[in-house]
Design brief:
homodimer, 5-stranded antiparallel β-sheet, 4-stranded antiparallel β-sheet, DNA-binding
DNA sequence: CGACCATTTGATATGGATCAAGCGATGTGG
DNA sequence: CCACATCGCTTGATCCATATCAAATGGTCG
Protein backbone atom coordinates (compact mmCIF):
# COMPACT_ATOMS: atom_id res chain seq x y z
CA UNK A 1 0.00 0.00 0.00
CA UNK A 2 2.13 2.88 -1.26
CA UNK A 3 0.09 5.46 0.56
CA UNK A 4 1.75 8.77 -0.08
CA UNK A 5 3.34 8.26 -3.44
CA UNK A 6 4.33 11.11 -5.64
CA UNK A 7 2.61 13.49 -7.97
CA UNK A 8 4.74 13.48 -11.07
CA UNK A 9 5.26 9.75 -10.81
CA UNK A 10 5.57 9.08 -14.54
CA UNK A 11 8.96 10.76 -14.46
CA UNK A 12 11.03 7.82 -13.47
CA UNK A 13 14.47 9.21 -14.10
CA UNK A 14 15.96 12.66 -13.65
CA UNK A 15 14.45 14.50 -16.51
CA UNK A 16 16.09 17.45 -18.10
CA UNK A 17 15.46 20.69 -16.23
CA UNK A 18 12.71 22.94 -17.43
CA UNK A 19 11.90 26.55 -16.67
CA UNK A 20 9.13 27.41 -14.32
CA UNK A 21 7.40 30.66 -13.57
CA UNK A 22 8.52 32.35 -10.35
CA UNK A 23 6.57 30.73 -7.55
CA UNK A 24 5.71 32.58 -4.40
CA UNK A 25 8.25 30.83 -2.24
CA UNK A 26 8.78 30.92 1.50
CA UNK A 27 8.89 34.67 1.52
CA UNK A 28 10.83 37.09 -0.58
CA UNK A 29 12.99 34.55 -2.32
CA UNK A 30 10.86 34.19 -5.39
CA UNK A 31 13.42 33.78 -8.12
CA UNK A 32 13.02 31.87 -11.29
CA UNK A 33 13.79 28.33 -10.32
CA UNK A 34 14.45 25.12 -12.17
CA UNK A 35 12.00 22.30 -11.66
CA UNK A 36 13.39 18.82 -11.33
CA UNK A 37 11.75 15.48 -10.61
CA UNK A 38 13.38 12.61 -8.78
CA UNK A 39 12.21 9.01 -8.41
CA UNK A 40 12.11 7.47 -4.94
CA UNK A 41 15.55 6.86 -3.40
CA UNK A 42 17.33 9.00 -5.97
CA UNK A 43 20.13 11.19 -4.69
CA UNK A 44 19.38 14.90 -4.94
CA UNK A 45 22.78 16.01 -3.76
CA UNK A 46 25.70 14.32 -2.06
CA UNK A 47 27.57 15.00 1.14
CA UNK A 48 30.61 17.13 0.48
CA UNK A 49 29.36 18.56 -2.79
CA UNK A 50 29.43 22.34 -3.10
CA UNK A 51 26.24 24.14 -2.15
CA UNK A 52 25.12 25.49 -5.52
CA UNK A 53 21.38 25.53 -4.96
CA UNK A 54 18.68 25.87 -2.41
CA UNK A 55 15.96 23.29 -2.89
CA UNK A 56 12.28 23.82 -2.36
CA UNK A 57 10.18 20.67 -2.10
CA UNK A 58 7.04 20.96 -4.21
CA UNK A 59 5.74 17.41 -3.92
CA UNK A 60 6.87 14.18 -2.27
CA UNK A 61 9.27 13.78 0.63
CA UNK A 62 13.02 14.24 0.89
CA UNK A 63 15.41 13.05 3.60
CA UNK A 64 18.88 14.30 4.42
CA UNK A 65 21.38 11.79 5.71
CA UNK A 66 24.93 11.06 6.59
CA UNK A 67 26.73 7.74 6.72
CA UNK A 68 29.61 7.41 9.16
CA UNK A 69 32.74 5.43 8.48
CA UNK A 70 31.45 2.36 10.29
CA UNK A 71 28.29 2.32 8.20
CA UNK A 72 25.88 3.81 10.70
CA UNK A 73 23.42 6.04 9.00
CA UNK A 74 21.82 9.11 10.51
CA UNK A 75 18.88 10.91 8.96
CA UNK A 76 19.07 14.63 9.61
CA UNK A 77 15.50 15.41 8.74
CA UNK A 78 12.49 14.85 6.51
CA UNK A 79 11.42 17.64 4.19
CA UNK A 80 7.81 17.87 3.06
CA UNK A 81 6.20 20.05 0.37
CA UNK A 82 6.86 23.69 1.16
CA UNK A 83 10.07 22.96 3.05
CA UNK A 84 13.37 24.38 1.94
CA UNK A 85 16.54 22.36 2.12
CA UNK A 86 20.17 22.86 1.27
CA UNK A 87 20.39 25.90 3.54
CA UNK A 88 23.66 25.25 5.33
CA UNK A 89 26.46 26.83 7.23
CA UNK A 90 29.36 25.82 5.08
CA UNK A 91 30.09 25.90 1.38
CA UNK A 92 29.74 22.12 1.12
CA UNK A 93 26.74 20.00 2.00
CA UNK A 94 27.29 18.33 5.37
CA UNK A 95 24.52 15.84 4.65
CA UNK A 96 23.36 14.26 1.43
CA UNK A 97 19.74 14.52 0.29
CA UNK A 98 17.65 11.71 -1.14
CA UNK A 99 14.11 11.40 -2.41
CA UNK A 100 12.04 9.28 -0.06
CA UNK A 101 9.20 9.07 -2.57
CA UNK A 102 9.06 10.34 -6.11
CA UNK A 103 9.21 14.08 -5.77
CA UNK A 104 9.42 17.43 -7.49
CA UNK A 105 11.93 19.97 -6.33
CA UNK A 106 12.56 23.56 -7.31
CA UNK A 107 16.26 24.38 -7.62
CA UNK A 108 17.14 27.95 -6.75
CA UNK A 109 20.55 29.21 -7.72
CA UNK A 110 22.44 30.05 -4.55
CA UNK A 111 24.79 32.59 -6.07
CA UNK A 112 21.93 34.52 -7.55
CA UNK A 113 20.16 34.57 -4.20
CA UNK A 114 23.32 35.73 -2.45
CA UNK A 115 23.91 38.44 -5.03
CA UNK A 116 20.39 39.69 -4.63
CA UNK A 117 20.65 39.52 -0.85
CA UNK A 118 23.59 41.88 -1.06
CA UNK A 119 21.37 44.50 -2.71
CA UNK A 120 17.93 43.84 -1.25
CA UNK A 121 17.60 43.82 2.50
CA UNK A 122 14.37 41.77 2.57
CA UNK A 123 16.08 38.96 0.70
CA UNK A 124 18.97 38.98 3.17
CA UNK A 125 16.46 38.96 5.99
CA UNK A 126 14.64 35.99 4.44
CA UNK A 127 17.91 34.08 4.14
CA UNK A 128 18.59 34.65 7.81
CA UNK A 129 15.07 33.49 8.62
CA UNK A 130 15.55 30.31 6.60
CA UNK A 131 18.82 29.33 8.20
CA UNK A 132 17.42 30.26 11.60
CA UNK A 133 14.51 27.93 10.96
CA UNK A 134 16.92 25.17 10.07
CA UNK A 135 18.87 25.84 13.27
CA UNK A 136 15.72 25.45 15.34
CA UNK A 137 14.87 22.22 13.58
CA UNK A 138 18.26 20.76 14.39
CA UNK A 139 18.11 21.98 18.00
CA UNK A 140 14.80 20.17 18.38
CA UNK A 141 16.45 17.08 16.94
CA UNK A 142 19.08 17.20 19.68
CA UNK A 143 16.35 17.36 22.29
CA UNK A 144 14.63 14.40 20.62
CA UNK A 145 17.70 12.23 20.82
CA UNK A 146 17.98 12.34 24.60
CA UNK A 147 14.44 11.07 25.17
CA UNK A 148 13.19 7.52 25.66
CA UNK A 149 12.08 5.47 22.66
CA UNK A 150 8.42 6.04 23.40
CA UNK A 151 8.89 9.79 23.73
CA UNK A 152 10.87 9.93 20.49
CA UNK A 153 8.22 8.09 18.53
CA UNK A 154 5.42 10.18 20.03
CA UNK A 155 7.28 13.39 19.21
CA UNK A 156 7.92 12.14 15.71
CA UNK A 157 4.25 11.42 15.09
CA UNK A 158 3.24 14.87 16.33
CA UNK A 159 5.93 16.41 14.16
CA UNK A 160 4.68 14.55 11.09
CA UNK A 161 1.09 15.49 11.88
CA UNK A 162 2.13 19.11 11.64
CA UNK A 163 1.14 22.01 13.83
CA UNK A 164 -2.35 22.24 12.34
CA UNK A 165 -4.49 19.51 13.91
CA UNK A 166 -6.58 19.06 10.77
CA UNK A 167 -7.20 15.38 10.29
CA UNK A 168 -6.05 12.72 12.69
CA UNK A 169 -4.76 10.40 10.00
CA UNK A 170 -1.21 10.63 8.78
CA UNK A 171 0.32 8.69 5.94
CA UNK A 172 3.99 8.16 6.57
CA UNK A 173 5.99 8.21 3.35
CA UNK A 174 9.06 6.56 4.88
CA UNK A 175 9.99 3.10 6.11
CA UNK A 176 10.42 2.04 9.73
CA UNK A 177 14.12 1.94 9.00
CA UNK A 178 14.08 5.60 7.94
CA UNK A 179 12.17 6.54 11.07
CA UNK A 180 14.63 4.61 13.19
CA UNK A 181 17.59 6.32 11.58
CA UNK A 182 16.02 9.68 12.25
CA UNK A 183 15.20 8.88 15.88
CA UNK A 184 18.39 7.02 16.72
CA UNK A 185 16.54 3.72 17.21
CA UNK A 186 16.43 0.41 15.41
CA UNK A 187 13.53 -0.36 13.11
CA UNK A 188 12.41 -3.09 15.50
CA UNK A 189 12.19 -0.66 18.37
CA UNK A 190 10.17 1.74 16.23
CA UNK A 191 7.77 -1.06 15.33
CA UNK A 192 7.42 -2.26 18.90
CA UNK A 193 6.92 1.26 20.20
CA UNK A 194 4.17 1.93 17.68
CA UNK A 195 2.56 -1.34 18.78
CA UNK A 196 2.80 -0.24 22.38
CA UNK A 197 1.28 3.17 21.66
CA UNK A 198 -1.54 1.35 19.93
CA UNK A 199 -1.99 -0.92 22.95
CA UNK A 200 -2.43 2.16 25.12
CA UNK A 201 -5.06 3.47 22.69
CA UNK A 202 -3.03 6.56 21.82
CA UNK A 203 -2.86 5.65 18.14
CA UNK A 204 -4.04 3.15 15.55
CA UNK A 205 -1.46 1.58 13.31
CA UNK A 206 -2.32 0.42 9.81
CA UNK A 207 1.13 -0.09 8.42
CA UNK A 208 2.15 3.36 7.21
CA UNK A 209 -1.17 4.91 7.97
CA UNK A 210 -1.36 6.11 11.55
CA UNK A 211 -4.47 7.47 13.21
CA UNK A 212 -3.91 9.70 16.20
CA UNK A 213 -6.59 8.71 18.71
CA UNK A 214 -5.32 10.60 21.71
CA UNK A 215 -3.11 13.55 20.94
CA UNK A 216 -2.85 14.73 24.50
CA UNK A 217 -1.45 11.36 25.54
CA UNK A 218 1.19 11.81 22.84
CA UNK A 219 1.81 15.38 23.87
CA UNK A 220 2.27 14.25 27.44
CA UNK A 221 5.11 12.03 26.21
CA UNK A 222 6.57 14.97 24.34
CA UNK A 223 8.16 16.24 27.62
CA UNK B 1 41.73 22.20 42.23
CA UNK B 2 39.85 24.88 40.36
CA UNK B 3 42.04 24.58 37.29
CA UNK B 4 40.63 26.95 34.74
CA UNK B 5 39.08 29.59 36.88
CA UNK B 6 38.27 33.02 35.65
CA UNK B 7 40.18 36.18 34.99
CA UNK B 8 38.16 38.83 36.72
CA UNK B 9 37.39 36.53 39.59
CA UNK B 10 37.06 39.23 42.21
CA UNK B 11 33.80 40.27 40.61
CA UNK B 12 31.48 38.02 42.45
CA UNK B 13 28.14 39.50 41.44
CA UNK B 14 26.88 41.00 38.23
CA UNK B 15 28.56 44.33 38.24
CA UNK B 16 27.14 47.34 36.51
CA UNK B 17 27.94 47.47 32.78
CA UNK B 18 30.84 49.56 31.64
CA UNK B 19 31.86 50.80 28.24
CA UNK B 20 34.60 49.14 26.31
CA UNK B 21 36.52 50.13 23.22
CA UNK B 22 35.42 48.42 20.02
CA UNK B 23 37.17 45.05 19.94
CA UNK B 24 38.06 43.30 16.74
CA UNK B 25 35.38 40.67 17.02
CA UNK B 26 34.73 37.56 14.98
CA UNK B 27 34.83 39.52 11.80
CA UNK B 28 33.09 42.67 10.75
CA UNK B 29 30.83 42.89 13.76
CA UNK B 30 33.04 45.20 15.74
CA UNK B 31 30.56 47.44 17.45
CA UNK B 32 30.95 49.11 20.74
CA UNK B 33 29.94 46.48 23.21
CA UNK B 34 29.13 46.41 26.87
CA UNK B 35 31.40 44.36 29.09
CA UNK B 36 29.84 42.32 31.84
CA UNK B 37 31.28 39.89 34.32
CA UNK B 38 29.47 36.90 35.77
CA UNK B 39 30.44 34.64 38.65
CA UNK B 40 30.37 30.88 38.16
CA UNK B 41 26.85 29.42 37.77
CA UNK B 42 25.24 32.83 37.26
CA UNK B 43 22.54 33.03 34.61
CA UNK B 44 23.49 35.16 31.64
CA UNK B 45 20.12 34.92 29.96
CA UNK B 46 17.08 32.74 30.43
CA UNK B 47 15.18 30.45 28.12
CA UNK B 48 12.25 32.27 26.55
CA UNK B 49 13.66 35.75 27.08
CA UNK B 50 13.80 38.01 24.03
CA UNK B 51 17.05 37.97 22.10
CA UNK B 52 18.32 41.49 22.75
CA UNK B 53 22.05 40.85 22.56
CA UNK B 54 24.70 38.73 21.00
CA UNK B 55 27.29 37.65 23.51
CA UNK B 56 30.98 37.28 22.90
CA UNK B 57 32.90 35.31 25.50
CA UNK B 58 36.10 37.09 26.46
CA UNK B 59 37.21 34.93 29.35
CA UNK B 60 35.87 31.90 31.20
CA UNK B 61 33.39 29.32 29.94
CA UNK B 62 29.65 29.55 29.29
CA UNK B 63 27.13 26.73 28.82
CA UNK B 64 23.70 26.88 27.23
CA UNK B 65 21.05 24.58 28.62
CA UNK B 66 17.46 23.62 28.68
CA UNK B 67 15.49 21.88 31.41
CA UNK B 68 12.53 19.77 30.33
CA UNK B 69 9.33 19.45 32.30
CA UNK B 70 10.41 16.24 33.98
CA UNK B 71 13.64 17.85 35.18
CA UNK B 72 16.05 16.38 32.68
CA UNK B 73 18.66 18.88 31.72
CA UNK B 74 20.37 19.12 28.36
CA UNK B 75 23.42 21.23 27.73
CA UNK B 76 23.42 22.64 24.22
CA UNK B 77 27.05 23.60 24.12
CA UNK B 78 30.06 25.06 25.84
CA UNK B 79 31.35 28.43 24.73
CA UNK B 80 34.99 29.32 25.24
CA UNK B 81 36.77 32.67 24.85
CA UNK B 82 36.29 33.95 21.33
CA UNK B 83 33.00 32.12 20.85
CA UNK B 84 29.81 33.99 20.13
CA UNK B 85 26.53 32.92 21.65
CA UNK B 86 22.97 34.10 21.56
CA UNK B 87 22.84 33.78 17.79
CA UNK B 88 19.50 32.08 17.33
CA UNK B 89 16.73 31.41 14.90
CA UNK B 90 13.84 32.87 16.80
CA UNK B 91 13.21 36.09 18.66
CA UNK B 92 13.35 34.31 22.01
CA UNK B 93 16.23 32.30 23.42
CA UNK B 94 15.50 28.59 23.06
CA UNK B 95 18.16 27.75 25.64
CA UNK B 96 19.32 29.61 28.70
CA UNK B 97 22.97 30.52 29.19
CA UNK B 98 24.95 30.17 32.39
CA UNK B 99 28.50 30.90 33.41
CA UNK B 100 30.40 27.68 34.05
CA UNK B 101 33.28 29.55 35.63
CA UNK B 102 33.57 33.23 36.40
CA UNK B 103 33.62 34.91 33.05
CA UNK B 104 33.63 38.14 31.11
CA UNK B 105 31.23 38.62 28.25
CA UNK B 106 30.80 41.36 25.70
CA UNK B 107 27.16 42.25 25.07
CA UNK B 108 26.44 43.44 21.56
CA UNK B 109 23.13 45.08 20.89
CA UNK B 110 21.22 42.94 18.46
CA UNK B 111 19.04 45.69 17.04
CA UNK B 112 22.03 47.81 16.25
CA UNK B 113 23.71 44.90 14.50
CA UNK B 114 20.58 44.18 12.51
CA UNK B 115 20.19 47.82 11.54
CA UNK B 116 23.76 47.97 10.38
CA UNK B 117 23.39 44.66 8.53
CA UNK B 118 20.57 46.25 6.53
CA UNK B 119 22.95 48.89 5.23
CA UNK B 120 26.31 47.15 5.15
CA UNK B 121 26.54 43.92 3.21
CA UNK B 122 29.67 42.63 5.00
CA UNK B 123 27.87 42.83 8.33
CA UNK B 124 24.92 40.89 6.93
CA UNK B 125 27.34 38.34 5.55
CA UNK B 126 29.05 38.03 8.91
CA UNK B 127 25.72 37.44 10.61
CA UNK B 128 24.97 34.65 8.17
CA UNK B 129 28.39 33.18 8.82
CA UNK B 130 27.82 33.25 12.57
CA UNK B 131 24.45 31.53 12.47
CA UNK B 132 25.80 29.05 9.92
CA UNK B 133 28.61 28.25 12.32
CA UNK B 134 26.09 27.66 15.06
CA UNK B 135 24.10 25.39 12.76
CA UNK B 136 27.16 23.27 12.10
CA UNK B 137 27.89 23.05 15.79
CA UNK B 138 24.41 21.73 16.50
CA UNK B 139 24.53 19.32 13.58
CA UNK B 140 27.73 17.88 15.02
CA UNK B 141 25.98 17.56 18.35
CA UNK B 142 23.28 15.42 16.74
CA UNK B 143 25.94 13.15 15.31
CA UNK B 144 27.57 12.93 18.75
CA UNK B 145 24.38 11.77 20.40
CA UNK B 146 24.02 8.62 18.32
CA UNK B 147 27.46 7.31 19.20
CA UNK B 148 28.52 4.97 22.00
CA UNK B 149 29.60 6.39 25.35
CA UNK B 150 33.27 5.87 24.59
CA UNK B 151 32.97 7.58 21.22
CA UNK B 152 31.10 10.51 22.74
CA UNK B 153 33.71 11.09 25.41
CA UNK B 154 36.55 10.78 22.94
CA UNK B 155 34.88 13.25 20.58
CA UNK B 156 34.27 15.59 23.47
CA UNK B 157 37.91 15.57 24.50
CA UNK B 158 39.05 16.28 20.97
CA UNK B 159 36.51 19.07 20.71
CA UNK B 160 37.73 20.63 23.94
CA UNK B 161 41.34 20.28 22.85
CA UNK B 162 40.52 22.46 19.88
CA UNK B 163 41.60 22.08 16.28
CA UNK B 164 45.13 23.28 17.00
CA UNK B 165 47.09 20.41 18.55
CA UNK B 166 49.21 22.73 20.67
CA UNK B 167 49.64 21.19 24.05
CA UNK B 168 48.31 17.80 25.01
CA UNK B 169 46.96 18.93 28.36
CA UNK B 170 43.44 20.25 28.67
CA UNK B 171 41.89 21.74 31.77
CA UNK B 172 38.21 21.08 31.77
CA UNK B 173 36.30 23.94 33.35
CA UNK B 174 33.10 21.92 33.86
CA UNK B 175 31.97 19.12 36.14
CA UNK B 176 31.39 15.50 35.12
CA UNK B 177 27.72 16.26 35.48
CA UNK B 178 27.96 19.07 32.91
CA UNK B 179 29.85 16.81 30.53
CA UNK B 180 27.23 14.13 30.97
CA UNK B 181 24.41 16.53 30.28
CA UNK B 182 26.15 17.65 27.13
CA UNK B 183 26.84 14.10 25.93
CA UNK B 184 23.53 12.57 26.97
CA UNK B 185 25.21 10.34 29.56
CA UNK B 186 25.19 10.12 33.34
CA UNK B 187 28.08 11.54 35.29
CA UNK B 188 29.02 8.03 36.41
CA UNK B 189 29.29 6.83 32.82
CA UNK B 190 31.48 9.81 31.97
CA UNK B 191 33.76 9.01 34.89
CA UNK B 192 33.96 5.32 34.06
CA UNK B 193 34.60 6.03 30.39
CA UNK B 194 37.44 8.40 31.22
CA UNK B 195 38.86 5.70 33.48
CA UNK B 196 38.60 3.21 30.65
CA UNK B 197 40.31 5.52 28.18
CA UNK B 198 43.06 5.91 30.72
CA UNK B 199 43.32 2.15 31.08
CA UNK B 200 43.88 1.87 27.33
CA UNK B 201 46.63 4.51 27.58
CA UNK B 202 44.76 6.96 25.35
CA UNK B 203 44.64 9.63 28.05
CA UNK B 204 45.74 10.44 31.56
CA UNK B 205 43.13 11.66 34.00
CA UNK B 206 44.03 13.99 36.85
CA UNK B 207 40.57 15.06 37.89
CA UNK B 208 39.77 17.93 35.55
CA UNK B 209 43.14 17.97 33.96
CA UNK B 210 43.31 15.54 31.07
CA UNK B 211 46.45 14.69 29.16
CA UNK B 212 45.94 13.34 25.67
CA UNK B 213 48.50 10.57 25.27
CA UNK B 214 47.28 9.06 22.03
CA UNK B 215 45.23 11.37 19.88
CA UNK B 216 44.94 8.98 16.98
CA UNK B 217 43.34 6.41 19.25
CA UNK B 218 40.79 9.05 20.20
CA UNK B 219 40.33 10.08 16.61
CA UNK B 220 39.72 6.47 15.68
CA UNK B 221 36.81 6.49 18.12
CA UNK B 222 35.55 9.68 16.56
CA UNK B 223 33.91 7.65 13.75
C1' DC C 1 38.87 19.77 62.12
C1' DG C 2 34.51 19.11 59.89
C1' DA C 3 31.22 20.06 56.12
C1' DC C 4 30.56 20.02 51.53
C1' DC C 5 31.27 18.78 46.70
C1' DA C 6 33.10 16.49 42.89
C1' DT C 7 34.69 12.22 41.65
C1' DT C 8 35.40 7.34 41.65
C1' DT C 9 34.06 2.68 42.10
C1' DG C 10 30.95 -1.26 42.95
C1' DA C 11 26.53 -3.93 42.53
C1' DT C 12 22.40 -4.44 40.21
C1' DA C 13 18.57 -3.25 37.06
C1' DT C 14 16.74 -2.25 32.59
C1' DG C 15 15.69 -0.27 27.99
C1' DG C 16 16.80 -0.96 23.69
C1' DA C 17 19.95 -3.65 20.45
C1' DT C 18 20.70 -7.81 18.28
C1' DC C 19 19.62 -12.17 16.35
C1' DA C 20 16.08 -14.86 14.42
C1' DA C 21 11.75 -16.29 12.51
C1' DG C 22 7.32 -15.58 10.38
C1' DC C 23 3.83 -12.95 7.78
C1' DG C 24 1.47 -10.17 4.31
C1' DA C 25 1.77 -7.49 0.18
C1' DT C 26 3.83 -6.69 -4.28
C1' DG C 27 5.89 -7.86 -8.36
C1' DT C 28 8.00 -11.19 -11.80
C1' DG C 29 8.76 -14.84 -14.86
C1' DG C 30 7.39 -19.38 -16.29
C1' DC D 1 -2.62 -17.57 -13.47
C1' DC D 2 0.22 -19.32 -10.19
C1' DA D 3 4.87 -20.24 -7.84
C1' DC D 4 8.32 -17.87 -6.07
C1' DA D 5 11.40 -14.10 -4.68
C1' DT D 6 11.57 -9.76 -2.44
C1' DC D 7 10.58 -6.27 0.74
C1' DG D 8 8.69 -4.01 4.68
C1' DC D 9 6.81 -5.04 8.95
C1' DT D 10 5.93 -7.56 13.20
C1' DT D 11 7.01 -10.45 17.03
C1' DG D 12 9.87 -13.36 20.10
C1' DA D 13 14.20 -14.58 22.74
C1' DT D 14 18.38 -13.11 24.45
C1' DC D 15 22.23 -9.96 25.32
C1' DC D 16 24.57 -5.91 26.60
C1' DA D 17 25.59 -0.98 27.35
C1' DT D 18 24.33 2.27 30.16
C1' DA D 19 21.33 3.85 34.01
C1' DT D 20 20.44 3.60 38.69
C1' DC D 21 21.40 2.99 43.45
C1' DA D 22 24.84 3.05 46.91
C1' DA D 23 29.09 3.85 49.27
C1' DA D 24 33.78 5.36 49.79
C1' DT D 25 37.52 8.70 48.69
C1' DG D 26 39.66 13.06 48.19
C1' DG D 27 40.06 17.93 47.73
C1' DT D 28 38.62 22.70 49.23
C1' DC D 29 37.07 26.04 52.29
C1' DG D 30 35.37 28.03 56.41
Amino acid sequence: MRTQSAVGSDLSKRQSPSRVTPNRLGGTIDFLGTLMSFPGNAEIYGEGEPVDYFYKVLSGTVRTCKVSIDGRRQIGGFYLPGDMLGVEGSAEHTFSAEAVTDCQVLLINRRRVMARAARETPVARELLRLIGHELERVQDHVLLLIKSAEERVASFLLEMAGPAPEGNTINLPMTRQDIGEYLGLTLETVSRTLAHLQATAAIEVHSRQIVLRNRSALRRLNA
